[in-house]
């Protein structure tokens, strides 16, 4: 290598510091902002609007010259980035296609997994993972809560990925499970929030999967009042955790994408039917 060669590169993006109305709209699924990928996944998909005012830094890419890999330069580059962060930064985080090697590398730098997507990236073919390195007191508290939720939701996410025919490799799963806290119980208020986020605000299925199951298990009789297609969608995906292609087949729909949209409508129908039944029971008494 010549003396002027680039040995490594760290690409960063500054995010956050969002206005309250922007946070509210993002939380409700009504707005998406370019350059706010980390903030959006935390606010919208993880249900954390308190993150909006934070100062965030997203590590977009860290790369070392191929001839110099394996010498610790990547670790030194990441440590330099951390030392360069100002005191106003609440957290630095990253989103990437998860492999055991990358999760291990980021974990060594103090990053913790807080979310795993069930879908595979078109470029990497790997499930997406969100990792955070909290810096401020409020970021450490939120990250601790997100980790407990991650511990609770990970088994369901692994099962859904396996149903889709893309099981997580054992080494990757071991890295994601590393140092996880006790799972956070799914409370009634959180069930309502997650279900309504999925039904009305475009929340993702993998984040709401456990809450959806709890909802249906608590009132299975509501299924009898739904249309046959709505019932098949809910039973096949929510209760049985079948792959989207199988869900579409069971409901007689064209493909997985159609089934995804139809399930969201079916959950809305379940909620509205449940409310009507509850209102009728109250008026009868």
Structure overview:
With 285 residues, the chain is an alpha+beta fold. It has a five-stranded mixed β-sheet with strand order 1-2-3-5-4. A hairpin with a 6-residue loop joins strand 4 and strand 5. The termini are far apart. The model has no long low-confidence stretch (mean pLDDT 90).
Notable features of this structure?
5 strands; single chain; alpha+beta; 11 helices; 5-stranded mixed beta sheet; 285 residues
Summarize the structure.
This protein has 285 residues and is an alpha+beta fold. It is built from 11 helices and 5 strands; from the N terminus they run E-H-H-E-H-E-H-E-E-H-H-H-H-H-H-H. A 5-stranded mixed beta sheet has the order 1-2-3-5-4.
